[in-house]
Design a protein that fits this description.
Chain lengths: 263, 296
Amino acid sequence: MSATTAQAVRTAPAAQPPTAAARTGLGDAIGSEWIKLWSLRSTWWYLGGAAAIVVLTSLLEPGDGDPTTPNSVAPVLGAVSYFVQYVLAAFGIVAITGEIATRSITVTMACTPRRTRIMIAKALVVGGVVLVTSLLVTGGGLLLTAVRFGELPLLDGAQAETVLAASVYLALLAVFSLGLATLVRRTAGALSVVLLLLLMVPELLRMLSVRIEAPWVNTVGDWTPSPIGWRLMEGQWADGLALLGWAGAAVAAAVWVLRRRDA
Amino acid sequence: MIELKNLTKRYGDKTAVDDLTLHLEPGTVTGFLGPNGAGKSTTMRLILGLDAPTSGTALVDGRRYADLDRPLTTIGALLDAKAVHPGRTGRDHLRAMARSQRIPARRVDEVLERTGMTAAARRRTGTYSLGMSQRLGIAGALLGDPRVLMLDEPVNGLDPDGVTWIRTLLRGLAAEGRTVFVSSHLMSEMQQTADRLVVLGKGRVIADEPMANLLTATGSRVRGPALEALAERLDGARWTGDGELTVPGVRPEEVGALAHQLGLLLHRLEATEPTLEESYMSLTADAVEYTAGGEA
């Protein structure tokens, strides 16, 4: 009896035949992630916190007393490596763990069943927002010092390059953290792993290489994210490609896991 | 419409959904009943592609959920009302959902209006009661104006007004030709809402009946000074008071004819409409006996 009904329904034309133009794509997933990001107060706390610390550092910077030479980029880079990078790594982490912890990830997956698309959209939004924020914050910090000491030009070519390098580092680090957090699933766990990797692993490997007299162990440590970041900010752009590798690998692993795991 | 074919889901050695085959038709409200842990929520998660089935298929309008483009325009679901970010407002939650489907933002305000959530829409969902969260979840399910709606325990946490509202809403959606699939452990609620009842136990369908079948099995209640002879002749008759006999499943006409034949004096004879609870109990009891008998 239900067979006839079922057949009747199957032959009935679909109410809204999907057209090529109506199909959703990555852009729609990005748009959704964008709304989600900016509708949380925590986003403003993370990005505002990063900005505040750079502004504070720039205001406290004593200056070199010579208005004819540009100020050192050291204070801004110090703020980045001592504080800002951890804040923005955490920002990348909560972009996914915030959804996992509240189970709202199920709503995201119901809206966008293609989980690869979800992950790519998150990576692009997190990476893009961190890149732009970092450009504004580190660039703004250097401009602030320059204005304070009446220097011209406000920002020279070398400084601009450092600003760009620091911003690329922070953006890729945030994307790496996002991918890693997808594997770890919990905010505290993911943050521990990222801090361990950034703070401890290079140092531990350096000590180990001395102890076992194996220089290659130290070399491995040199290719973890934070030493790469330093070299990138010193202008070694080629080394920065390795950072792209870290971020890309983390996102690829996240996609793999997301596609296989039950939500 | 929803088609489940031999759907099975195991978590380790525990079978949550066991070889489930089910067709849900447009224009009907199908009630999905069963105790906690029977596999109702898992079945719904499998339909939405949140969990991957161990074997079998779940199709919505002939396609796997993962193959639907703009899935919310085909099937709207509410699985877990509290699965929202507490720091986001209800309206922003819906806006993000709408954007992913290219649903215009004005539709968000329409569904907020329809679910009575306009006033609370700009508050963060962390401040919502369970009832308000349910309404927001239903707003999300209605967002894409889908032909199929699937709601897991939507009545939970709603006040009596909300319960009536849900009942009217679901009846209305089915009347518009949509497929409505709603789970509950409240049988009384299903009695007034569903056209068809699917009862799940330990991941298996133990009863699947049109509601009409479950409710038309009229019985009789009979009063008289000396009904012992009647009680002996009627299977299942039981004393429900001094001189009062209740006979499930036997219509008053038959009871009256038998009393006449036996020459008994009756003081009262009336029909009893069984509640869904009673039908449910007898159905599940049959299923349990059948299973036990089959295995013996």
